[in-house]
Amino acid sequence: MTRRPFPLAVPPELTAYLLDFHWDLELLHALDLPVIELPVADLAHHLDLPFWAYDGRPFQITPHQVAADPVTYQDQYERTLAADLRHPLDVVRRPDDRLTILDGVHRLLRAELEGRTVVAVRVLPWTDLDRIAVRGG
Asked: How many domains does the chain have?
């Protein structure tokens, strides 16, 4: 079986970050992955990318826009404040050695807002992506 393609049109600035197939968050969370600590600064560039939905449309706002205007973006800001930093972020290590976030952008923003210098991260190797892929047409 083949991987199911990613279901949404992705803005050009996110194509180097998002996977091009549909993957399952529960499968990701079920994996036994090593946890490391990384400087928040190493992942902070994710906070300038339009990962988040606004007004029912995906890929409209960046986490830093939410932090700068929590009244306008109240839903995303509240999700950020509720993010549980006891859970590590999930990232994938790409073939070029870059780490990109699969799950945890709200936790990363919360860590930055709280002035934390490091964050716990679970690292999925690129070669293990099939372990989280949704199969089928």
From this structure: 1
